[in-house]
Design a protein that fits this description.
104 residues, alpha+beta, four-stranded antiparallel sheet, 4 strands, globular
Length: 104
């Protein structure tokens, strides 16, 4: 049995990051990872998930468990990230606006 763990993080966009993110800009993000229900949060797996999408200098801040009923009212990007995690992939929701230097 699995559930989805959600990690709040900040990371820097590399040249490999897809989407509207400029290289070297730092962004807040949510990382979604499927894990066994009774397991501890896997911080290294969450970091690796963001890194595999081209994000560097990943700093994980907090983690929690996301239940599927909490998807009601969420936007499509959030639901897609949850579904990616449930399929065994890493799901990311990256906040569009970069974190201003000095605010991280």
């Amino acid at each position: 049995m699995y559930n989805v763990r959600m990690y709040l993080a900040e990371a820097v966009a590399s040249l490999e990051v897809e989407g509207p993110y400029k290289p070297h800009d730092k962004h807040a993000m949510l990382i979604f990872i499927r894990q066994a229900v009774e397991s501890e949060h896997d911080w290294k797996l969450a970091e690796a998930g963001a890194a595999s999408a081209g994000w560097v200098d990943v700093v994980l801040k907090r983690a929690g468990t996301l239940e599927s009923e909490n998807l009601n009212g969420r936007d499509q990007q959030f639901r897609d990230a949850f579904e990616s995690a449930m399929q065994g992939r890493c799901g990311l929701v990256v906040y569009r606006d970069p974190i201003p230097e000095g605010d991280a």
